[in-house]
Each structure stands twice: as structure tokens, then as C-alpha cells.
Amino acid sequence: MYEKWLVGVDIGGTTIKMAFINQNGEMIHKWEIPTNKSEKAQHIPTDIAKSVDQILDELGQRKSKLIGIGIGAPGPVNLRKGSIDVAVNLGWENFHLKDRLEMETSLPVIVDNDANVAAIGEMWKGAGEGAKELLFVTLGTGVGGGIIANGEVIHGVNGAGGEIGHITSIVEGGVLCNCGKTGCLETVASATGIVRLTIEELSSTHIPSKLRDFYNEHQTLSSKLVFNAANEGDELAKRVIDYVAFHLGLALANVANGLNPEKIVIGGGVSKAGEALLAPLKEQFTRFAFPRVAQGVELAIATLGNDAGVLGSAWLAKKRFT
């Protein structure tokens, strides 16, 4: 039988990840191109279309080999129109991505939020494989989320379902978030938030820490350095991670109490800390979750890494166009 391919696309702030994937979710070929932000990122649909044509040519394949394109994009998505309401990092406002890409490629296109497609990818082929009730949170520069109920992504009335990163802390006030609110989970549990909390702790205490020496010398830190220091018993680093785990565990428990998920999958760059993050997080989650919810769920680190978005996008195309 003539095998046809799906196209998965994941638009990031630095690179656009792309892949040809068969209907069983097996990666045929993956690649990436730079994200062109010039002129309010107007050229992205053209760049994607040209790249698809170029890779097809290199593989000796015709466009008839392709079923359609699924694409994950940052920001709230108008699912009916396939447009992006606003993507601050790209300069998009009411950007008609679906229409533009269909015109450029002559292929059918479906668009969803990037965190949602990553959640779908982990459900299809990753740490959440087989789970119909799944909570996905990605801890990177910000905090993204996807909620899957009965195998379907929760989009909500205007595409803002799953915005776990903007759950507000139980502490009133807090740091200003990019969304305009203060005290959002994103300001605490993201890589950026962890670094900010560590620098605040360094300036407000006199606890000895190797992080203090590093920061004094380099005037910079990373969340990876903080986790490494915590693993080595650094008291200040452990205090920061415990604080992060408290707020993340509380937020995830409250969402889980509404969903009663089978799996909670933690992705994004911060998730590479592995057990150093997972152990204190499980403790705080169990503390705050309804006991029966806590009994039914497994917390796990995402396994697909950067492939989650393209796999989830391909799954969207498979579901819509086959």
C-alpha cells in the first residue's frame, strides 16, 4: 500500500521544527529552520512552504505524498479560523496562519496552540501514551499547559483552555507576569522564575552557597545550575527548589482535582532536572490533591523532548484529514 505522510510543524521563538511522520506516528524525516521574525514574522508561512518543497525534493518525493499539515503556534488560537489572536514574541495579531499556509502549500492545514500539540504528542507517543485523561505542563522560559479529557484537548470558549502557567499564587501580589497579572505560576516555576528567585535569595540572605560565588563572578545563573547545586546539597538551592515545588504542586493539584487525570506529564527545559524536580513535586502534589485523585495519577517526566510538538501537530492532521 502506498504510504502517505503527515507534516508536523512546531513554531518556536528561535527555530521552526518540522517533520514528515507516517500515520503510525513514526518519524520519517525531521529538520528545522530559523524563525524569521523580520517584518512581524510575516514570512513564516512562505518559509515553511519552501522548506517542505525543498525536503520533498531532497527525498525524491512528490507533494501528493503528503496528507496535510498540522501546526503548533504560540499564543491563543482561533480554532475555527486557524488564526493566531496574538503571539507577542512573533509580533502577530489576528494572523491568519491557516489561510496563508494553505495558499502557499496547496495542502490542508490545521492549527492549535503549541502547548496543546505538545500534550497531544506526549499522549500519542510519549510519557502519556495510552492516557485519555492527561495534564501536561511545560516548564521553559514560561509555563505552558495542555489539558486532555476523554482523549480531547480542552480548548474552552475562546481558545484559552489549559493556561496552567497563569494560575495565580496563593500569595497575594507577587511579580508582574507578561500577561499583565501578578503572582502567576509562570513567574515562579519557569526557568526564568527559578533564576529570579535564586538571585533574590542570594541578595536577601547570607547562606553560604556555591551559587553565590558563581553569580558574583559571572553575574548570571541558570535553572540547571540551581538544580545541580541542590543535588549536591546546597542549602540555598534546595530552599529555592522546595519553594518552586510547593507552588507547582499546589497548582497542579488544584487542576487535577477538577480533571482526575491518569497522568501528569512535566516537559520543557526545566524538566531535564528529572528526579531533582519530580521528588519534591510529588510530595507537594500529594499534600494538596484530593486523596483519591492522588491515588489515581502518575507524575512523569516527558520523554519526547523537542519532538512532542511535531508529533502532536501530525496527530492533529491525521485526525482531521484522514
Structural descriptors:
globular, Nucleotidyltransferase, domain 5, about 325 residues, alpha/beta
Radius of gyration of CA atoms, rounded to a whole number: 20 Å
* Main sheet attributes: strand count, strand direction, barrel closure: 5 strands, mixed
- Mean pLDDT, rounded to whole units? 95
Low-confidence stretches: none
As for the CATH topology of the largest domain, it is Nucleotidyltransferase, domain 5
The CATH class designation of the largest domain is Alpha Beta
Structural class: alpha/beta
CATH superfamily of the largest domain: ATPase, nucleotide binding domain
Helix proportion: 40-55%
Number of strands: 13
N to C succession of SSEs = EEEHHEEEEHEHEEEHHHHHEHHEH
CATH architecture of the largest domain: 2-Layer Sandwich
Strand content bin: 15-25%
Please tell me what the overall shape is: globular
- How many angstroms separate the termini? 15 Å
Q: What quaternary form is this?
A: single chain
Number of helices: 12
Strand order of the largest sheet: 3-2-1-4-8
Number of structural units classed as domains: 2
Outline:
The chain has 322 residues and is of the alpha/beta class.
Structure explained in plain terms:
This protein is α/β, with parallel strands linked by helices. The protein has 2 domains: 132 residues, Nucleotidyltransferase, domain 5 (2-Layer Sandwich); 172 residues, Nucleotidyltransferase, domain 5 (2-Layer Sandwich), CATH 3.30.420. The chain is 42% helix and 22% strand. The protein has 12 helices and 13 strands. The strands form 3 sheets. Strands 3-2-1-4-8 form a 5-stranded mixed sheet. It has a 5-stranded mixed sheet with strand order 11-10-9-12-13, with helices on both faces. The chain has a 3-stranded antiparallel sheet with strand order 5-6-7. It is globular. The two termini are 15 Å apart.
